[in-house]
From TrEMBL:
Record protein name field: Oxygenase
Pfam family, one: FAD_binding_3
Classification via SUPFAM superfamilies: FAD/NAD(P)-binding domain (SSF51905)
Manganese keyword on record: no
Taxonomic source organism: Undibacterium terreum
Length: 512
């Protein structure tokens, strides 16, 4: 019996398989396709994803293979209105202050190859037909390419099988939301004429909307825009020549070759349940929304990171099964917020009429121009897009505060003022750990030693205070590097109370 059966080998499923395997969990990952995707599809890898990819030793590989877009430029009616420089806005926030453009087909192949080095291969041409939660395990019926069927057992089932998820349909949970009247087009092209060529660009026109991302070399660009009017009714048969070119022409972009073109309807939906018993939904199986801001794939990968450590702790006997309920509580809340945000942005970008045109071509550019001049606004926008602002303060796993940092927050990155706390002085395995900025008491060192808890102590400097950290405080970190407990007094008793008062226990990991 496998520990976890993963259905779907896109970025979400592959990331889940990697994080589980890294923690010693036995997985099977199946996909009905013959191989990884052949088209670029999702291309943006955000900073928070890269931070967490460091746990898998693949962050630098993604950055090296991808294209760093250091800034985004805002245009309206052919005029340049603003430029937000990520390298400035995010310099004190993350080691990755840029937007990485890395086509999904290449991304998937990198994840597949990494998984192979860990001894796990994707089982291709294998389809989930159905499953039954038996209470103690899940029995799943699989169909091979030749039509042969078999029943396999796993402790847990993870549905990472996309917007048309078989797992979600079998669960019987709702998938509430709707479909926009406009459609999207996506094109990978060779182009010239838009400067700076290595930066991202966004244009709002009265009749059109477009995003342009640079990737690779020799003028490779990704275009994302809207399909309007009667053309949206025949979206399946459109070609690039059929797309309204207003915004493209106003940008001065000259398209020389179309390498790939696709159109699709845009939905905004969230599953009513992310978990039912031993079955979970992740990525597009649980939430879909407009591609505004490049959030979709990254959200699915963060779903995987959130669930993986919780499954590992439960399967290893370090925690009670109730811990898994926090997955849905934390990730569903974020998904709802994200869908609402992208819905508002997409509705604004695609709205029509005189008032809407005025807002898009005057009000929005004016705000963007203001953001260009005010660092705090640029920083806020970068944090939002990069998902470094995601927090779980309302989670039952979050407690306390020390300095400006609260339980549930992403641990502030300290690499701009001192040692990089995402790796620490010595690289640690994925797991719980304690951070202290200043001095650690003898009692704390003894507690961590007795409980096999990694302890990272960083010599105090004033830069830590500017980041919101408190001197000599205890920051208990979850395996996904979010703060579980922040205690300003540095109390060891607070650690004991934290674990003993919840539905899981640290006793399973203590020394015997």
């Amino acid at each position: 019996m496998s520990d976890v059966l993963i259905v779907g080998a896109g970025p979400t499923g592959l990331a889940l398989a990697l994080w589980l395997t890294k923690q010693g969990i036995k997985v099977r990952i199946i996909d009905k396709s013959a191989g990884p995707g052949e088209t670029s599809r999702a291309i943006v890898v955000q900073a928070r994803t890269l931070e967490l990819y460091r746990q898998l030793d693949i962050a630098e590989a993604v950055v090296s293979a991808g294209h760093k877009n250091p800034s985004i430029n805002m245009w309206a009616r052919g005029k340049h209105r603003a430029r937000i420089v990520f390298s400035d806005a995010g310099a004190d926030i993350t080691p990755y202050p840029f937007v990485t453009v890395y086509p999904q087909d290449l991304h998937e192949r990198l994840l597949v190859d990494k998984l192979l080095t860990m001894g796990v291969a994707v089982e291709r041409k294998t389809e989930l037909v159905g499953f039954e939660d038996k209470g103690e395990y899940v029995a799943a019926r699989l169909r091979q390419a030749d039509g042969a069927e078999s029943v396999v057992e796993a402790q847990y089932l993870a549905g990472c099988d996309g917007a048309r998820s078989t797992v979600r349909q079998q669960m019987g949970t709702g998938f509430e939301g709707g479909t926009y009247k406009h459609a999207f087009y996506v094109a990978d092209v060779d182009a010239s004429g838009l400067e700076p060529a290595d930066e991202a660009h966004g244009a709002l026109d009265s009749g059109d909307f477009i995003l342009v991302f640079s990737y690779g070399t020799e003028g490779h660009r990704r275009l994302i825009g809207t399909v309007r009017d009667e053309r949206a009714e025949k979206v399946e048969t459109l070609t690039f020549d059929d797309v309204r070119q207003d915004a493209i022409n106003h940008l001065g972009l000259k398209v020389h070759k179309v390498n790939w073109f696709s159109t699709y309807r845009v939905h905004h939906r969230i599953a009513e349940e992310f978990q039912r018993g031993r079955v979970f939904l992740l990525g597009d199986a649980g939430h879909i929304h407009s591609p505004a801001g490049g959030q979709g794939m990254n959200t699915g990968i963060l779903d995987a990171n959130n669930l993986a450590w919780k499954l590992a702790d439960v399967i290893k006997g370090h925690a009670l099964a109730q811990l898994l309920e926090s997955y849905a509580l934390e990730r569903q809340a974020f998904a709802r917020k994200l869908v609402a945000t992208t819905d508002r942005l997409f509705t604004l970008a695609t709205s029509e009429g005189g008032v809407a045109d005025f807002i898009k071509t005057h009000i929005v550019p004016a705000f963007a121009s203001l953001a260009y001049k005010i660092h705090d606004v640029q920083e806020f926008l970068f944090k939002t897009v990069s998902q470094t602002t995601v927090h779980y303060r309302e989670s039952p796993l979050s407690e306390g505060s020390a300095g400006d940092v609260q339980g549930g927050d992403r641990l502030p990155w300290t690499g701009s003022v001192g040692p990089d706390n995402y790796l620490g002085p010595a690289k640690v395995e994925i797991g719980w750990q304690v951070h202290v900025y200043g001095s650690a008491s003898t009692a704390l060192r003894t507690w961590c030693d007795e409980h096999s808890m990694a302890l990272q102590v960083f010599d105090w400097n004033d830069g830590y205070q500017k980041l919101g950290l408190a001197r000599d405080a205890i920051y208990l970190l979850r395996p996904d590097t979010y703060v579980a407990l922040a205690n300003a007094e540095g109390s060891v008793d607070a650690l004991d109370r934290y674990f003993s008062s919840r539905t899981y226990t640290w006793a399973g990991a203590a020394k015997t």
